[in-house]
Amino acid sequence: MARPASQSVTIIDVAERAGVSKSTAARALANYGSVSEKTRVAVQAAAEELGYQANTLARSMITGRTMTVGVVIPDISNPFFGNAVRGISTAAREEHYDVLLSSTEGDIGLERRAVSVLAGKKVDGVIIAPVSTEDTEHLESLEAKGVAVTLLDRPAPKVAAASYVAVDHVGASSLAVNHLIDLGHREIGIVTEASAMPSDQIDPTLASVLRPAPARLLGYAMALRSAGIRYDPALVASSAYARASASAAVRRLLESQPQVTAVYCTDSELSAGAFAALQELGIDSPGQLSLIGFDDQDWATLVRPRLTVVEQPSYQLGRTALKELIATMVNPAERRQHRTLRGRLIVRDSTARPRKSGEERRTATL
Amino acid sequence: MARPASQSVTIIDVAERAGVSKSTAARALANYGSVSEKTRVAVQAAAEELGYQANTLARSMITGRTMTVGVVIPDISNPFFGNAVRGISTAAREEHYDVLLSSTEGDIGLERRAVSVLAGKKVDGVIIAPVSTEDTEHLESLEAKGVAVTLLDRPAPKVAAASYVAVDHVGASSLAVNHLIDLGHREIGIVTEASAMPSDQIDPTLASVLRPAPARLLGYAMALRSAGIRYDPALVASSAYARASASAAVRRLLESQPQVTAVYCTDSELSAGAFAALQELGIDSPGQLSLIGFDDQDWATLVRPRLTVVEQPSYQLGRTALKELIATMVNPAERRQHRTLRGRLIVRDSTARPRKSGEERRTATL
DNA sequence: CCAGTCCGCGGTAACGATCCCAGCGATGGA
DNA sequence: TCCATCGCTGGGATCGTTACCGCGGACTGG
Q: Do B57 and A93 touch (CB under 8 A)?
């Protein structure tokens, strides 16, 4: 009696125990081909008794499918990606897929390596929020190998066959800016990771090839324009993706542009930095300044004033990306699906009608 | 010239192009055995030209190693797990491993299925924050199959061979409670997910088999005791893991126990709920009540008063777990490693000396 | 009663790598 | 000169599964 001891029990063990060939055992377990009811029961019983578990690797060698999707994102501890990955993960489970996760720290080299490893592991598809919009050869080679690719919230124009699922950043900005305009604001600043673009470069057709930050900036400019308000690059406060940097940018903006009555922050970190700046400067919001943040973070209702924000559907974005990826895998012919999800405005206490003109904003300087 | 078209290029293609056998090609690429410098260069050139990428599945069939670890957690969008997974992920990369992620929504059934799938995919090890402390048969069977297991922050006494990496919850509570005691507090409430234990059940030896919530409660009780303060179950406000629930629990506590001068929240959500309750009740902190939170969340410095917290090293916890898992894989004989990481007290503005006795806490009731 | 189907089953070839072993020429020492 | 050794190479076996083909027997219809 050759017992496989602690080693894994294979289909041959099951077949032997059930007294059939491995072919029959395979059919009985995978429920295909034709097997008599009697042997099917016998085989399944044998499998049960031995604690048989199919080796997916061997299966994948034959079938060419691993039932695994790769997910490549810059930072899993970022709540946006955390929620997106949760969406991907739950949707993947529903579709009987698993998730191979790579957090690349925003490093293009690590991203390339991650993609390469995923290809080696023969994932059926990849969902990626690429570091770069242009430097995407590794993604193109992925396509060449027949691996489905879905871009998450960041475009990559060169990757022709990839589907693309993103938040409607332009629309999200419109929600924010229009809300401020409706309240009567005219001098509206913006805190953004992007650098200010000259007003003659505001081109709506670019929306689908821009990364989130420039896209939101574009949406801001377009919303102003369609309200008949001049887009002024001087009101664009550029900042790195860091709270302290955003804080400093807001200070500079408010100092150099005292006419500003409202500020729109295009990012969760930037929102936090801006909010901190207001507190440190002793600026009353919304009395002296209206503030609108991005992403409905868990502190938005904890601070005073409670923060008005544009919420983005990150969980749903993840779900949609996975569904889209699977659709791409099933039908590779249909290419370049582009799906876009809307943001939502949540009005709280940090936005209000602007202070009466003539009334100056006082900042308590340390 | 049989070109593999869009299909994947195998080592045989490389061998043919280089004019050698597949064995030689394999040696040249994997850099083992002995190959002449000339053929090595030729093979590597051929591989380069064809864009050869080794099929990891086939390799794993032979070697028995997949260079993949499974990670099973209840909720990836929870910042604690987000940070832990980032730690796992970066450490994994350093060790040339990949991460197969399962988010189980805290459902034991999904956890079981996830573990089973991971076993089928032949992961080399599993890091898991199990849903249940007792219901761990699926983990035991994992061990039986020779898969290394490391428990993340939640014990599972029955899983004999698993290593265990956790925050020192008892110690973390001590930091919080001792800080309050040092300030002069004597009537200290606690908000916890655990249910109040009778004072005769406070047993320090239980620390290593308790889940985070009860462990923190135990630490609270022990810290009080060693300061000569009676542990009073009436001061324990139990709450579900939800902000609204915590908020309600705090209200009940403050109403029924007006003598309380400080509250320790044992969890990030509970901290948020407690903070919200204070704001809604119009209670001045730290003037009327000292508050100490758990987890250094990004809003801790945004709210007023800025929140004193016990920080837990979630990123480092993930790193440690992965290192520990690898150690377990390398040396399976050495069992039941138990590593514990300390929390850190960050004193901010929400804790201060208690109000003078006789001075009542006023709550602005709606 | 015979021929044609169809069901159930077993044998064997894949999948793409690694691993083991044997062959073979060159080299070196006796 | 001959044998042992060593470096390099190729040919298979192998991992565990699925895919494919063919065979025997039962069943059916004419």
A: no
Q: Which residue among B68, B122, B301 places its CB closest to the CB of A55?
A: B122
Question: Which nucleotide lies nearest residue A64, CA to C1'?
Answer: C15
Q: Would you say the C-beta of B31 is within 7 Å of strand C?
A: no
Q: For tokens 């730690």, what's the residue?
A: B87
Mutate to test the interface with B, among A72, A98, A137, A140 (most CBs of B within 10 A): A98
Give me chain B's average pLDDT, please. Answer: 93
Give the rounded distance of the alpha carbon of A153 from its chain centre.
5
Among all strands, which nt has the closest C1' to B56 (CA)?
Answer: C17
Interval A220-273: pLDDT, tens: 999 999 999 999 999 999 999 999 999 999 999 999 999 999 999 999 999 999
Backbone angles phi, psi at A320, to 5 degrees: -60, -40
The token pair at B233 is 């179950």
- Tens-place pLDDT, residues A160-219: 889 999 999 999 999 999 999 999 999 999 999 999 988 888 899 998 899 999 999 999
Answer yes or no: is pLDDT of A1 > 70.
no
Q: Please tell me the distance from the alpha carbon of residue A4 to that of residue A285, in angstroms, as a whole number.
A: 71
Which chain A residues are within 8 Å of B13, Cβ to Cβ? none
Residues whose CB is below 7 A of strand D: A 7-8, 10-12, 22-23, 26, 29-30, 32, 52-55, 58-59, 61-63; B 19-24, 27, 33-39, 58, 61-62
Indicate the DSSP class of residue A201.
G
The distance of B202 to chain A (nearest Cα, Å) reads 34
Q: Write down the pLDDT at residue A140.
A: 95
**pLDDT of A363 over the 90 cut:** no
Is B169-307 a domain of CATH 3.40.50.2300? yes
Question: Is B102 in a helix, a strand, or coil?
Answer: strand
Ranges of each domain in chain A: 11-54, 65-161+314-342, 169-307
Cα–Cα distance measured from residue B293 to residue B301, given in angstroms and rounded to the nearest whole number: 12
Q: Which CATH architecture has domain B65-161+314-341?
A: 3-Layer(aba) Sandwich (3.40)
Single pTM value for the model: 0.94
| CATH code reported for the domain at A65-161+314-342 | 3.40.50.2300
Q: Do domains B65-161+314-341 and B169-307 have the same CATH topology?
A: yes
The C-alpha atoms of residue A83 and residue A341 are separated, in whole angstroms, by 15
**Alpha carbon of residue B133 to chain centroid:** 15
- Which tens digit of pLDDT belongs to each residue from A69-128? 999 999 999 999 999 999 999 999 999 999 999 999 999 999 999 999 999 999 999 999
